[in-house]
Design brief:
The structure is a single chain. By secondary structure, this protein is of the alpha/beta class. It is about 50% helix and about 15% strand. It contains 13 helices and 9 strands. It has helices spanning about 25-40, 40-50, 50-55, 55-80, 90-100, 105-120, 140-150, 170-185, 205-215, 240-250, 255-265, 280-285, 300-310; strands at about 5, 85-90, 130-135, 155-160, 165-170, 190, 225, 270, 290-295. It has a 5-stranded parallel beta sheet with strand order 7-2-1-8-9, sandwiched between helices. The longest helix is centred in the first third of the chain and has 22 residues, at about 55-80. The protein is globular and about 55 Å long. The two termini are about 15 Å apart.
């Protein structure tokens, strides 16, 4: 059976998000490994931390990477079956690269921490904004961004599903864009719990810094193809992977195209490999021909292994 795994990014974090994996020791072990790498107690943060702490980009990115890797390791303990292709939404692309063995976990955690710090430096806390717009066509949202920018930065940055696009840029411009989108018929416009305006041109300084950092990160040929956000293509050349990661930071996430590309490749099932069901919800609205699964806890993971793999380890 041809199936894909997808890994979420920021926005899927929550206190207690790994509680459903208590029967899979490798999950806690992965967080302990990550804590040793970063010198920070990641497990305590997701079990006892305040939501405000989790929502800081410098914390969210390592936490979500660890959560995705932990879930994938739990999958590998349960079944010998492996996905045909991988993808990740924004930060989740790094988790996909770890799952594909292109980047080692011990390199990926400091990498995403550096990425987060660079993003926060590029746009100070409170200066930027990011919001989801529901119920408008893509062209209408691009027009809203153009009309509401008023000399600031306001861009469509995540094409998440038909009728759901995320905009980002200067905080005041985002607020104007939210109001204008509602005037023009959007069903909802809501600020997202993220402390930086990802994937817009304000991130270009962070992308430049990331490019320098990536020069010293060891990247191998992925053992499972990873579709990248920026060009909806899989790359085997490590330098092409580096370029895709740098470009991703200041260009839109083309998620709708990514899921449709999987369908074109004959992928009949897509499973979200992480706590939460954010991508599963989006994917159902993108490609009706695919069966969508989520693995928010250990029981769901085991059910998915039966459905997708059949051959338990």
């Amino acid at each position: 059976m041809k199936y894909a795994f997808v890994f979420p990014g920021q926005g899927s974090q929550s206190v207690g998000m790994m509680k459903g994996f208590d029967s899979h020791p490798v999950v806690r072990e992965t967080f302990e490994e990550g804590s040793d790498i970063l010198g920070q107690d990641l497990w305590k943060m997701i079990t006892e931390g305040a939501p405000e702490e989790l929502n800081l980009t410098v914390n969210t990115q390592p936490l979500m990477l660890a959560a995705g890797v932990a879930t994938y390791r739990a999958w590998n303990k349960v079944t010998q079956s492996r996905p045909t292709v991988l993808a990740g939404h924004s930060l989740g692309e790094y988790t996909a690269l770890v799952a594909s063995n292109a980047i080692a976990f011990h390199d990926a955690l400091p990498l995403v921490r550096f990425r987060a710090e660079s993003m926060q430096r590029a746009v100070p806390e409170g200066a930027g904004g990011i919001a989801a717009i529901l119920g408008l066509e893509d062209d209408a949202i691009r027009a809203v961004c153009q009309d509401a920018a008023e000399g600031g930065v306001l861009e469509a940055v995540n094409y998440n599903s038909p009728g759901q696009v995320v905009i980002a840029g200067d905080r005041a411009a985002v607020e104007r864009g939210m109001a204008l989108a509602k005037e023009r018929g959007a069903k909802r416009a809501l600020l997202l719990p993220m402390s930086v305006p990802s994937h817009c041109s304000l991130m270009k300084p962070a992308a430049d810094a990331l490019g320098e950092y990536l020069k010293d990160v060891k990247i191998e040929v992925p053992q499972i193809p990873v579709l990248h956000n920026v060009d909806v293509s899989a790359h085997a050349d490590p330098d092409e992977i580096r370029k895709a990661l740098v470009a991703q930071l200041h260009n839109p996430v083309r998620w709708v195209e990514t899921i449709r590309m999987m369908a074109q490749q004959g992928i009949g099932h897509v499973a979200e490999c992480a706590p939460g069901k954010v991508l599963a919800g989006l994917n159902k609205r993108i490609e009706s021909s695919q069966i969508v699964l989520a693995m928010p806890d250990g029981a769901a993971l085991e059910d998915a292994a039966t459905t997708l793999g059949g051959n338990h380890a």
